[in-house]
Every structure is written in structure tokens, then in C-alpha cells.
Amino acid sequence: MSLAVDLSYWQQSTIRGLAVLIFVILGAGTFVIAFLFKMMSYMQSRLGPMEAGPHGSLQLLAEVGKFLQKEDITPENADPHLFRAAPFIVLASTFLLVVVVPFGPDAYFTNLDTGIFLALGLSSVSVIGVLIAGWASANKYSLIGGLRAAGQLIAYELPMVLAVVGVVIQSGTLNLQGIVAAQHEGEIFGWGGIGNPYILTQLVGFFVFLIATQAELTQPPFDMPVAESEIVTGYITEYTGIRFLLFFIGEFATAAVFAVLASTLFLGGWSVPFVDLDDNVMNIAGPLILFTKMMLVGFLIFWVRFTFPRFREDQLQAFAWKYLIPISLVNIFFTMILKVAF
Amino acid sequence: MPKPKIPGLFTGLRITFGELMKTLFPKGRGIKGLIPAPTIGAVTVQYPHESETPAPRSRGVIALKEENCTVCMLCSRSCPDWCIYIEGHKTKAPPRRPGGKERTVSALDRFDIDYALCMYCGICVEVCPFDALFWSPEYEYSEPRLADLLHDMDRLAEWMETVPDFEDYEAGSAAKVRKVPR
């Protein structure tokens, strides 16, 4: 199957760039409105924003408009170039993460042989942006926040990678399309009725991945780097206006991307059971299916976020190194044994 | 058999999810219960659109029963913020019984409360020995100009209509419930 129109390289690139932009804005917007504004309020028996648009649905536009109007302040002692560049580095890692996600049999940005490897590598780039933001602000709270974020992101990168390794062993490929196909055609101990979404056989990996995602996003209960009761807002303290908005979009867009990655790795991605993988319909239905799965995973992430209080810094590190990493290593070990046995 | 202990982490998740369901679907089971109705389920009162019912004994504004005031100045002196301004003069009143002596009484010239200063401690209401000051639950009297928050005698007397009756004391209480002078 090929597209009827032939596009030159720059046209394709423009369309891809726009599609990534749309995904980031839509993903972040949906998560903010559906979860941060509404679900969180309902969980606290509140209503959330109600004035802008029906049930406050246009509140996000008002917020963005507000942030765009605000003055973009660079502190006097800050390193101006690094300070201004930092939010873009954080956002760039989010944009690049979207690139590897497949949305359908032909609907993808790039189909790399080592897609998930690239995704995990790129997700670490945001650490650099956060560290730069913390350092360049010339503010003690920012610096402490940046260092905490770096320590946390590095600590939770490991269990995330190890959780993914379990999936990679089971599917036998690093290609995300391959992982989707492996789940669609897979068998659970010889029974192939609904394929094998890896959440069934890699349940431990799924939860380790979700917990690590939570920590990567510096969301509660892992929000030590932005703990407002101790260090104002950590590395975002000195940011105002559009640069604060970039950090904000980055956080929720990354949440959306990680939710999409989790649904690709563990919930079967854009495929559904009983529908042929190469079916042309999937190019249109695939993104919608993936969106539904993304909302499900997003619900889990934000449910945890709005429920638990913050971990202490030492508990946070101990949780990663003493529990999550050993658990995911054991998970890999058993996956290997079962992979060889069956 | 002891009940199996559910870890606190899961209890927390159950509670937040339960609250979400209670807010979204407050109408219970059945077909009607499937329609999300958060405006009914949430405890939020959408203030400018619907008004809130103040709690019993809530302190909104202080009302003055002008006739009961004897210009004793107790309220003014006990006010921590010095936000009560009182001026008065002595006048003669007719005798109580025929043939008696003319009485000397105090009349109010000015009784102002500056709500820009008032901190709603209620000491003036407590200290008034002549039942002239009362709490009213009205709270909608903000002004664009700060100076307009100074309520004069007439304005304070108008609040008197909004003063609710005192609530009954606990069962078995020896004290009688005070009456609000109407």
C-alpha cells in the first residue's frame, strides 16, 4: 500500500513536523483539561473551572493567553543564554519522543529498527534541560531542585529501561511496530485468542514502567524536585510567562507521550484483537484506538498523582534502588526463563 | 476471623476513585445514574450564580438596635481595632410615673463601624450589656471605595432586619434563650 500522492522530502517533513506539534498540543491539552482540571476536582468533590466555556472547557485557552501576556523575566545574575534555552531543551526531548511512536500500519513518523532504544535515550535528554534550568537560574532553590531532579530522573531511568527490557525479550525486537505486531500475533502459553498484550504476561513490568514514568514526570508522589513547601518550585522558580508555559506543556506532553509508549509496549499499541494488522482501516482507526489506550494509562498515572502525598528524598531514592530495580531484574530473569522454555 | 488488612496505598486509591464516582454519578444506580452530573455531586457552591447558606451563628455583619444603646462606650473601648466611633449627648426624658422627676438619658449622635478595620472578633457584641449589638449572617456588602465600608447608624440599623433568632441551647440548660429585640 502506498499513498496516492507523491510528496517531496520537504513536504513530508513539514507534514510530519506539524503532526508532531499537533500531537504534543493535543496530548498535553487533553491531559490538562480531562485530568488536571476535571478529574482532580471531582476526586476532591470540587467542580474545577466552570466559567470559560461550557463546564470550563476553554479554561486552558484562557490560561495560555494569560501566560503569553506575562513578562518574560531573566534574573540579573542568571546565565542568560542557558536560562532562556533550558525550557526548549526539555520540550525538544518531548517532541523527539513522539517521533518514534507508531499510530497505525503506515501511520508513523519514523520506523526505526531500534525505536524503543531511541525513545529511552531521548527521554534522558530532558534531565540536561532541567539541570541547565536549575544551574542557570542563579537561585539556591532552583539549584537544589535541579540537582534533585537529576538524581531522581537518573535513578528512575534504570527501572524504566529494565521494565522495557522484559518486553523486548518477549517480543524479540526493539522496533515498536514489531512490538505491536508481536503482541497482536502473540500467544499466552499456546493460547492465541486475543493475541498477547504484554500487560498480561509482563504485569510487573507494566507497573514498574508506570511508577518510573511517574517519577520521570516529577509528578506527585515523586515531586521532590518541585516540592513547593521546601524549595518554592525547584528548577522552575525563576521562570515566568512563556518559558514557564513551555515547562508546563513539556510536563503534560511528556505524560501523554509516556502514556502512549506504555500503551504501545504493554496494551497492544494501535492494534485491537480480531482486526487484521495490515487492514487499511487501521491507519485511521489506529490513532483513535491508541488515543483511547493513552487515556486509560493517563487515568492510572493521574489517579496515583492525585492520591498520594510526596515521598521524602531518601525514601524516593531507596524505593528506586532497593525495590524497583531488583524487582525488574527478577522480572527480566523469569521472562528469560519462560522465553526459552516456551 | 480477622478482616484481611488492605495496604494503605490501595485504600487511598479506593477513596479517591470512590469520591470521583460519587461526584460524577451522584444519582445512584439505574439508567439515570449513568448520566454524569458533577454539578449535583460536588459540594462546591457556584457563588455568584447561586448563593451560599451561611452556617448557624456565622459572623457576617454587626447590626445595631439604636433604641437600646445608652452610649456607654463599652464596645468602642473594648474594640481591638478601634473601629467603632460613638458620639452622644445628654437629653431630658419625661418621667416614668406621673408627678416624677424628669430623667436624664443619653442619645446617640453618631455610631459608625468601619468594616475596613473590623476584624470580626465579636468582642463588641459580647460586651454590650444592653442588647444593642447583634451578629447578622449577611456578607454581601463589599464596596469599590474603601471609605464606603464605614457603616453609619442608619445602615447598621438596617442590618437589624436580617438578624436571625437565637438558637435553642442544649437540652437541660438552665439559662433561657435571649430574644432578639424586633
How would you explain this protein's 3D organization?
The complex is a heterodimer of chains A (342) and B (182). With 342 residues, chain A is an all-alpha fold. Chain A has helices spanning 9-43, 59-69, 80-99, 115-123, 125-136, 140-171, 176-185, 198-201, 203-216, 228-231, 241-266, 282-307, 313-341. In chain A, α1 crosses α11, α2 (59-69) crosses α11 (241-266) and α5 runs antiparallel to α6. The longest helix of chain A is centred in the first third of the chain and has 35 residues, at 9-43. The relative contact order of chain A is 0.14. The relative contact order of chain B is 0.16. Chain B has a three-stranded antiparallel sheet. In chain B, strands 1-4 form a two-stranded antiparallel sheet. Chain B has helices at residues 8-24, 38-41, 74-78, 123-127, 153-158; strands at residues 61-64, 84-93, 103-114, 133-136, 150-151. Chain B starts with 7 loop residues before the first helix and ends in a 24-residue tail after the last helix. Chain B is built from five helices and five strands; from the N terminus they run ααβαββαββα. Chain B is elongated, with a radius of gyration of 26 Å. By secondary structure, chain B is an alpha+beta fold. Classes of the chains: A mainly alpha (342), B alpha+beta (182). The interface between A and B is medium-sized, with 15 and 18 residues.
